[in-house]
Backbone:
């Protein structure tokens, strides 16, 4: 149970003044749902503004506050271009205040002609004239002396402004309780760190590295502690030694030779499963490294030893695909494989449940439904969790721990976690790495083109298809669970446009489509009947169609590197030379530009993962928050390098002294775990 002291922090943002249904959505888009989220929505940076008497005093590019009097409002003829308010300073210089989109309505209200206003923003030049694009503030009064010239800059989403966010943060800070200290006093002193509540206040008020470090440390400590709790729980459990004799594996008739890396991983897994202590191993391998066949071998070991195996996929789509792949590969072994998803109802469901209970099903592939309460296994020996970074690591491990005898667990991930983070993400888990791609893979030719070359792209696509090859067309979308109507609309619109050109050869898949329609579309694409698959990021993980050798990604600048890498990994799987075309919008931020350049330069997933963390620009990327591919929300890479080893040792020490978290520091640590939403570890403690 969550300690009561935290309750105020877990109340909804709607309880804050000024948050109604209209603001809820843009806040949710940033993952800001409770007061706690608001507190941890730390400024991306601070701007320091200089108050100037007139524009002659200011440099282009400088952040200023200046008194301006609007002289004229100009809307663009078409209504599509920017809305401009011309305004004069005290010396008679004219400056344009430029607004795009709906912001013009604010401008109309805030800047009546002839009335002096204080305008804060960045001075830019456009053509021969001066302008301020989307001023940060327009104030009727401004106290030059003693007024705040340094201001936080928060990540925003459409519908939010800096002052609105600042106001909400302020209220959240006011309501934040004083919490017991979970950091060792000596460390706190040695580093000069403030207490938790003070640290938050300071981090929102200005550049304060000690405050930031402290908050980062909290996150790292919570993570290390939670992983230690999972690890300790594992050690308390007993599993079953599964000694495979190779009789099923020897019947496999694979169309390729295993790579050395695959062989090594299988040997490591086999070694673990022969022990009574339940395996807890992570199989890490870049997209296309061949994890599926390793999983199959592991599952066959379990079946050879008389046990059952279950494989958990993150989406229905992937579960189906794994099922099809595994069934085909395993045909010569004669094992019984079943597919089980939440969609199975009635008789079909009953018969699978029976099969799992009486042991007539050897291997089951499915979504989280396979670990639900209603599902009982005769003898589950191995749980394989695919792409588990999408789930929240330990939650799955706990699920897999159902039953008296803990099954061996193999977690697979294609997210190449930088070495520097493996410890953080997985604590002391055993790791097998597939650090070698199957032979014969060709480099994917990656290009960047502006969206206005669309026609050419479609022509290229037509040639590609008439050569008998297949292609993906990806439109951006946050995550399956949180898709924005605009993004769905964009995918639908693109599909409609391409359908005009390619007719029935195009299919559409996105998270909002009914399951049977999605399946049918997918089946047509996998079978080669459909040539072009228009999709949102649903296809990000796992889909394997070797004949698809062209990938078009629209609005590529909105994706993070790790995600682009995953998407690109869908092509380059067959013999044909593959192309990945990144279509970008008109304007790019510096980090977006750098990300796209990196995609062209390298195919090294580990390098991209490191860079991804570095280049994660604030708020502009899709689906990065909560998606689990950024392991930490607060700690930066530098802080991870500096503080993670300390947190790791600290957690171990605390666990040694007080594994049940019952001392006063243990109690404080519980508060921390809930606060940082790493409480899955606590729940493993008795009475947790
Ligand atoms: P991932 O690690 O991304 O899950 P998959 O298991 O889907 O990769 O494998 C990618 C592709 O490579 C599949 O088409 C698979 O059949 C093929 N493959 C796997 N191992 C080998 C190998 N040793 N040699 C050649 N192809 C392989
Ligand atoms: Mg896979």
Residues:
């Amino acid at each position: 149970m969550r300690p009561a002291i935290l309750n105020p922090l877990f109340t909804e943002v709607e309880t804050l003044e000024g948050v109604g249904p209209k603001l809820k959505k843009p806040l949710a888009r940033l993952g800001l749902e409770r007061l706690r989220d608001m507190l941890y929505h730390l400024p991306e940076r601070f701007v320091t503004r200089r108050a100037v008497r007139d524009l002659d005093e200011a440099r282009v590019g400088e952040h200023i506050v200046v008194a301006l009097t609007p002289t004229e409002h100009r809307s663009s003829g078409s209504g599509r271009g920017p809305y401009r308010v011309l305004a004069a300073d005290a010396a008679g210089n004219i400056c344009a205040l430029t607004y795009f989109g709906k912001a013009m309505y604010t401008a109309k209200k805030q800047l009546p002609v002839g009335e002096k206003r204080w305008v804060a923003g960045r001075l830019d030049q456009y053509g021969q004239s001066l302008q301020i694009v989307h001023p940060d503030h327009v104030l009727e009064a401004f106290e030059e002396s003693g007024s705040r010239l340094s201001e936080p800059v928060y990540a925003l989403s459409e519908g939010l402004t800096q002052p609105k966010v600042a106001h909400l943060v302020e209220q959240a800070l006011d309501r934040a309780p004083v919490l017991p200290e979970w950091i060792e006093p000596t460390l706190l002193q040695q580093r000069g760190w403030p207490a938790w509540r003070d640290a938050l206040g300071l981090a929102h008020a200005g550049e304060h590295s000690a405050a930031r470090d402290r908050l980062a440390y909290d996150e790292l400590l919570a993570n290390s502690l939670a992983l230690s709790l999972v690890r300790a729980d594992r050690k308390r459990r007993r599993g079953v030694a599964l000694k495979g004799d190779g009789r099923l594996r020897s019947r496999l008739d694979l169309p390729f030779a295993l790579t050395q890396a695959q062989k090594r991983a299988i040997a490591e897994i086999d070694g673990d499963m022969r022990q009574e202590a339940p395996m807890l191993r992570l199989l890490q391998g870049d997209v296309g490294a061949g994890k599926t066949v390793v999983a199959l071998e592991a599952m066959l070991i379990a079946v050879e030893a008389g046990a059952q195996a279950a494989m958990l996929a993150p989406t229905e789509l992937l579960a189906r695909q794994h099922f099809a792949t595994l069934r085909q590969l395993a045909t010569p072994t004669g094992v019984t494989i079943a597919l089980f998803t939440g969609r199975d109802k009635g008789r079909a469901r009953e018969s699978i449940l029976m099969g799992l209970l009486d042991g007539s099903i050897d291997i089951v592939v499915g979504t989280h439904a396979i670990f639900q309460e209603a599902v009982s296994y005769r003898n589950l020996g191995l749980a394989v969790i695919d792409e588990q970074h999408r789930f929240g690591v330990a939650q799955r491990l706990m699920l897999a721990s159902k039953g008296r005898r803990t099954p061996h667990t193999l977690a697979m991930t294609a997210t190449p976690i930088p070495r520097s983070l493996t410890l953080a993400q997985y604590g002391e888990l055993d790791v097998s790495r597939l650090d070698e791609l199957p032979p014969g893979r060709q480099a994917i030719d990656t290009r960047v083109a502006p969206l206005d070359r669309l026609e050419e792209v479609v022509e290229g696509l037509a040639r590609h298809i008439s050569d008998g090859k297949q292609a993906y067309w990806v439109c951006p979308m946050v995550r399956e669970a949180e898709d924005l109507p605009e993004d769905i609309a964009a995918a639908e619109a693109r599909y409609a446009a391409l359908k005009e050109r390619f007719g029935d050869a195009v299919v559409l898949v996105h998270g909002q489509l009914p399951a049977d329609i999605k399946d049918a579309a997918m089946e047509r694409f996998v079978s080669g009947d459909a040539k072009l698959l228009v999709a949102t990021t649903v296809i990000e993980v796992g889909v394997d169609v070797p004949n698809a050798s062209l990938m078009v990604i629209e609005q590529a600048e909105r994706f993070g590197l790790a995600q682009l890498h995953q998407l690109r990994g869908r092509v380059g799987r067959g013999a044909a030379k593959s192309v990945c075309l990144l279509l970008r919008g008109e304007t790019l931020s510096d980090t977006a530009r750098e990300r796209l350049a990196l995609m062209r330069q390298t195919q090294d997933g580990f390098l991209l993962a490191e860079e991804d963390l570095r280049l994660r620009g604030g708020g502009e990327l899709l689906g990065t928050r909560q998606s689990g591919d950024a392991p930490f929300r607060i700690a930066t890479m530098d802080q991870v390098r500096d503080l993670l080893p300390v947190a790791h040792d600290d957690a171990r020490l605390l666990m040694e002294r007080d594994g049940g978290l019952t001392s006063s520091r243990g109690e404080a640590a519980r508060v921390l775990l809930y606060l940082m939403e790493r409480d899955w570890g606590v729940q493993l403690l008795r009475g947790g």
